Amino acid sequence: MNPWHDVELGDKIPDLFPAIIEVPKGSKVKYELDKTTGLIRVDRILYSSVQYPANYGFIPRTYCDDNDPLDVLVLGQEPVYPLSIVMARPIGVMEMIDEGETDDKIIAVHAHDPEYAHYEAIEELPPHRMIEIKRFFEDYKSLEKKVVIVENFLGRKEAITILQNAMELYQKKMENSETTLDNRLLDRIL
Fold this sequence. Notes:
By secondary structure, this protein is of the alpha+beta class. It has a single domain (3-189), classed as Inorganic Pyrophosphatase (Alpha-Beta Complex), CATH 3.90.80.10. The chain contains three helices and nine strands; from the N terminus they run H-E-E-E-E-E-E-E-E-H-E-H. The strands form two sheets. It has a five-stranded mixed barrel with strand order 1-4-5-8-6. Strands 2-3 form a two-stranded antiparallel ribbon. The longest helix has 34 residues, at 156-189. The two termini are 31 Å apart.
């Protein structure tokens, strides 16, 4: 089983979706899904003295221009173990440029966390929380001499548009992959 491809999005998408957690809130370890095996691997230990400000992961069955699934920060009270599925509700998006490439992050809340479940819009979050998130992403690669620019925070409507686009891109990518695979199999048979 590969969580990127095999976890169903459900019938409440885009208002509610499963998020696969890779990095727990408070961690300095950058875990990442191994796209081939579906297992979690240690990508690196963060060089900076910062910790992930929220549970971090991806939305299954999405695809972005960076060849990865769509990233998501899931706000909640507690750290969540890697490869856990968390039901999340989008409240906004952080527009980000990582090493010159677009790498937007959906900002969501844990739908079953009583402290965060009531949030509907990114504007409802305390301003200091937004500053913490922005600073983390601007700083977490700085000692590696990598440049990350947080351009803007946008609302729920924009987050849903980005999510829907990533779902459509995934569908197209998978259809093309299946066609390519079918053609390769036919070539072997013929």
